[in-house]
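Researcher: I'd like a candidate sequence for this fold, 358 residues long. If you have to choose between options at a position, lean toward the conservative one.
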C-alpha cells in the first residue's frame, strides 16, 4: 500500500513469525535487503519505499488494532522498530477493514490504532460507502500524483514531554537547537546556523560532506540529551533544517532520515515541527509565519507542503504540551497477493535486529 508519501508492505501479524529475529530475517528477504537496488524484493531502493506495517487485533480497550512499524534498511541487513511512521499509518485503517479486523461503516469508518513502537494512539477516519473502502476521492497531498480519498488522522495528546530535554533551546556543537517530540523525536535547527540556506535540493544537501559530519555530531548528542541513548544505529531523532517560508506556508523544511534528505516530510515529524514552532523562544519560531487565530500550520518541504492542525496547552508546572494534532493524508491499495521471498540459503548476510517488538 501507499500510505501518505511512503510505500510499504502491510502484513497481518499472524502471517509472520512471532519471534522478532525470525520475522526481521524474513522481511529482509521479502524487501530485497541488503542491496542498493533491492532488485530481488519488494523494496523501492529508498528508505521511504522500504517500510513494513504489522497489524493485529488489539487487546487494548482504547484501540481496535495494534500497528507495529518496521523500517527495513536498504543497503544494510537491519530492521528497526525504534520509530513510528505517520505516513504508513495512513494505510493501517483501510488495511484493517480490508482484512476484516474492523467492521466497515455504511458511510465512513473510524479505526482506533495503537502505535506499538511508542505506545501512542491515533484514530484514522476514511470513507467506506456501502461498507467497502473507497480509495478514490478529491484529496491531494504534495509528493503524490493525482487525488485520492482523504484519511483524517487525529492524535490524542501524548503522555511524554513535548520538550524531552526540559529546555526550549539547547546548544550542541555550537549550534542552537530545539529538541521536540510530538510523536516523533525531532531536532529543529536553523539552516543558516549550518551555513546552508534550507532551500537546497535534497540531493545537494546529501552530497555536502561537511554538513553530513555536523549533522551526525548533532544527532548523536541530541539523542543522549533526549533520553534516547546511543542513536548511532537508530533512525531517530530526525533533524529538520528550518528557513523562512518561500510560499504561503509557515516555514520551509529539509529533514534528514537520518542521512538521506527526505523528499517531503514525515507526518509525525511535521507534527513535531508544528508544535515546536508554537513554543515561544524555540529555534525557528522567529522564522515562522504563523496565524495565531488558526490551528493550521502549513509546513513547506522540497516537493510541496503538508498541513498540520496543531495547538498547545501547558502542563501543571507551566511547560508547553501538545493539546491537538491532526492531519489529512491519503492511502491506496496497490496490490494484494502472495510474496515469494528470496531463499534463506542465498541471503548475503545475517540480519541484525535493532530491538524486538515492544
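Model: Candidate sequence:
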Amino acid at each position: 500500500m501507499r500510505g501518505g508519501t511512503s510505500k510499504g508492505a502491510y502484513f497481518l501479524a499472524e502471517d509472520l513469525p512471532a519471534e522478532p529475529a525470525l520475522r526481521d530475517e524474513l522481511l529482509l528477504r521479502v524487501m530485497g535487503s541488503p542491496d542498493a537496488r533491492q532488485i530481488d524484493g519488494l523494496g523501492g531502493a529508498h528508505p521511504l519505499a522500504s517500510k513494513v506495517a504489522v497489524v493485529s487485533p488489539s487487546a487494548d480497550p482504547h484501540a481496535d488494532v495494534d500497528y507495529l512499524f518496521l523500517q527495513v534498511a536498504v543497503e544494510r541487513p537491519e530492521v528497526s522498530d525504534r520509530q513510528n511512521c505517520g505516513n504508513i499509518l495512513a494505510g493501517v485503517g483501510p488495511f484493517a477493514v480490508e482484512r476484516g479486523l474492523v467492521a466497515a461503516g455504511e458511510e465512513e469508518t473510524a479505526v482506533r490504532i495503537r502505535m506499538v513502537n511508542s505506545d501512542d494512539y491515533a484514530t484514522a477516519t476514511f470513507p467506506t460507502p456501502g461498507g467497502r473502502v473507497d480509495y478514490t476521492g478529491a484529496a491531494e497531498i504534495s509528493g503524490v500524483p493525482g487525488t485520492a480519498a482523504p484519511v483524517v488522522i487525529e492524535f490524542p495528546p501524548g503522555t511524554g514531554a513535548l520538550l524531552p530535554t526540559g529546555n526550549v533551546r539547547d546548544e550542541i556543537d555550537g549550534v542552537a537547537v530545539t529538541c521536540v517530540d510530538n510523536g516523533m523525536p525531532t531536532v529543529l535547527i536553523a539552516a543558516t546556523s549550518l551555513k546552508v540556506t534550507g532551500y537546497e535540493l535534497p540531493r545537494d544537501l546529501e552530497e555536502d560532506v561537511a554538513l553530513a559530519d555536523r549533522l551526525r555530531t548533532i544527532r548523536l548528542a541530541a539523542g543522549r540529551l533526549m533520553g534516547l541513548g546511543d542513536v548511532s544505529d537508530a533512525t531517530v531523532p530526525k533533524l529538520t533544517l528550518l528557513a523562512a517560508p518561500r510560499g504561503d506556508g509557515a516555514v520551509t523544511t529539509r529533514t534528514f532520515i537520518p542521512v538521506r534528505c527526505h523528499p517531503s516530510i514525515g507526518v509525525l515529524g511535521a507534527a513535531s515541527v508544528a508544535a515546536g514552532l508554537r513554543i515561544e523562544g524555540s529555534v525557528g519560531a522567529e522564522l515562522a509565519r504563523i496565524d495565531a487565530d488558526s490551528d493550521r500550520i502549513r509546513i513547506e518541504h522540497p516537493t510541496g507542503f503538508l498541513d498540520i492542525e496543531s495547538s498547545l496547552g501547558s502542563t501543571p508546572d507551566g511547560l508547553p504540551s501538545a493539546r491537538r494534532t491532526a492531519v489529512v493524508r491519503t492511502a491506496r491499495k496497490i496490490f494484494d497477493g502472495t510474496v515469494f521471498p528470496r531463499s534463506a540459503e542465498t541471503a548475503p548476510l545475517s540480519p541484525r535486529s535493532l530491538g524486538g517488538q515492544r
